[in-house]
Design goal:
The chain has about 550 residues and is α+β, with helices and mostly antiparallel strands.
Length: about 550
């Protein structure tokens, strides 16, 4: 399952989930592994870094053009079709597609070479405080495309004279050598809009733009997450040949007087940082576990999730749309030193990640904030140039949402003028030897003396570690009692500061870390700061958070 709703009525799609043939370089023997899935699920590869080869036989029932879509391959993929390399892709957390023309009916061989090693080739996947798994970790699909097809849909809602409107931009492409006389219709909220006919030259693209009022729709909000299906149908000489369905919501996001506004009303974010990680399954979570996470988040009283530190599986974003959970989604870069940011591949790999994230996730009404570069070198001139470059790229792709980046460069960060929202990671009583109140006071005083003054402020990380089941009445380090106490004090302080517009607890669930650099400071080779463990068993802090989030 790629999405939680049907994306097409005309276009034929075949999902390629199931068992694939697999070989691991350096290992004898042939295996069968599930797709989607992580190869760490197999006992022979539970801690392995290397290159694995997935293969699958495809059976096409007619000749023509196909599009192969991969929602996530960790972390480098080389895709071959009938022995010919057709695409290379880097980054585990963003989708990619490749179009293959003139494919004959019958059997074909699909091969995907997957590499999860670290090195100079990889600027973003490095030994980190979360694990980089290996495998085809998210769904794969094959689509049959007509010569002219719908390439993308972009939906932007806005209010004008207290009435909802939407600007819809639908990109279409013509793969044939011949020109085509095209028209487009859009169906949404009991409204049908038709375009004029247009001639599209062969091997070219164009966009149809609609701007239309919708007086009877309900706005999307956290308490009433109303969603609508936008169905675009492409026709040639009046005959429907292709379609695409997007699910959208009518809502606005704005900033005013240091507050974050949803539909013109201030909102306080009560959130969690959440990694895509589950005991034994790694980062390849089936839908039922995503639903369990969502149920637990809502039981805790949360209204927001930060997708630390990478774009999430789109099915989870679909759940956020359905449940009214606000999302801070960010590109893939965490804790990188200036030296690592100067990797010759860094700028391009970040640029690709941002573009793929925004282009694919633009229409989710739940996405509130775009984020970048968690805890990177924002205290250096060279780092600042890279922050500036990425913020500018985001605004070119989507000016409708605010931007931010979580910093830990307290009192030295020189980038607070660049984002729309100032976000700080604070760990008093855990990493910082001071009271929560003192830490908060000093941080707010510092921000007020910088170009970040007057902007909304989010505490993007806060919390403490606890090993599940370790109870100690003295409240020793790593005890559940100490974690619960620190989280209570942090929430009581931050949620009662008028300058603070949101708080995100680090973190929702314990997650595996890479042992190469993190085993000494992470008991069990896990980041243990979750309010539930990797099996989603609640710690003492669970009830503390539930009480305080629910009562705010």
């Amino acid at each position: 399952m790629l999405r939680l709703f049907e994306q097409y009525q005309i276009r034929k799609v075949q999902e390629l989930e199931g068992m694939w043939d697999f070989q691991m370089e350096g290992f004898d023997g042939n295996y069968r592994l599930p797709v989607p899935g992580c190869w760490e699920q197999h006992p022979s590869f539970s801690r392995h870094r290397g290159r694995g080869i997935y293969t699958k036989e495809l059976l096409l029932d007619h000749s023509g053009t196909i599009c192969l879509t991969f929602k996530g391959v960790s972390h480098t993929a080389d895709v071959y079709f009938d022995g010919e390399k057709i695409v290379h892709h880097y980054n585990a957390f963003t989708p990619f597609s490749v179009i293959i023309q003139h494919v004959s009916k019958g059997k074909h061989k699909l091969k995907v070479s997957v590499d999860n090693t670290f090195g100079e080739h990889s600027a973003l996947h490095v030994p980190n405080d979360y694990y980089t798994y290996g495998g085809i970790t998210r769904p794969v699909a094959m689509e049959y495309l007509p010569d002219a097809y719908i390439k993308s849909i972009q939906f932007l809602p806005y209010k004008k004279e207290n009435q909802w409107h939407a600007r819809m931009e639908i990109a279409v492409a013509n793969l044939s050598e011949k020109s085509a006389n095209l028209s487009l219709s859009c169906h949404i909220a009991d409204t049908t809009i038709h375009s004029n006919s247009a001639c599209l030259d062969g091997n070219s693209e164009m966009s149809f733009t609609f701007d239309h009022p919708f007086p009877s729709v309900e706005e999307w909000s956290t308490s009433n997450p109303s969603l609508y299906l936008l169905h675009a149908i492409l026709s040639i000489d009046g005959e429907a040949i292709d379609d695409q369905i997007e699910r959208v919501g009518f809502r606005t996001i704005s900033l005013k007087d240091g507050s974050l506004l949803l539909n013109g009303k201030p909102i306080f974010l009560k959130g969690f940082n959440r990694h895509e990680d589950y005991a034994a399954l790694g980062c390849s979570l089936p839908l039922q576990l995503m639903v369990q996470d969502m149920d637990l988040l809502q039981d805790l009283g949360a209204n927001a999730v930060r997708t630390c530190h990478y774009p999430n599986d789109e099915r989870f974003l679909d759940l956020c749309d359905e449940r009214g959970i606000l999302v801070w989604e960010e590109n893939h870069a965490r804790g990188l030193s200036l030296e690592r940011m100067q990797n010759p591949n860094f700028d391009k790999q970040c640029e690709d990640c941002i573009q793929e994230m925004i282009e694919n996730h633009y229409n989710h009404p739940s996405i509130l904030i775009w984020g970048i570069l968690n805890e990177c070198a924002s205290d250096t001139k060279e780092g600042r140039a890279k922050y500036k470059r990425q913020y500018e790229q985001i605004k070119r792709l989507d000016a409708s949402r605010p931007t931010t980046s979580a910093t830990c460069r307290h009192f030295t960060d020189i980038c607070l003028d660049l984002p729309d929202i100032v976000s700080v990671n604070l760990y008093p009583r855990w990493y910082e030897n001071m009271s929560v109140e003192e830490c908060c006071r000093k941080e707010l005083e510092w921000i007020s003396s910088t170009p970040g003054n007057g902007k909304p402020i989010i505490v993007s990380e806060m919390g403490a570690g606890a090993v599940y089941g370790y109870r100690d009445r003295t409240k020793a380090k790593w005890s559940e009692e100490l974690q619960a106490e620190i989280i209570r004090e942090c929430l009581a302080t931050y949620m009662n500061q008028k300058q603070i517009t949101g708080v995100f607890i680090w973190q929702f669930a314990d997650c595996r870390v890479t042992e190469e650099e993190w085993f000494q400071s992470r008991p069990r080779s896990h980041n243990n700061k979750g309010v539930v463990d990797e099996y989603r068993r609640p710690k003492l802090s669970y009830d503390v958070v539930k009480e305080m989030f629910t009562n705010r």
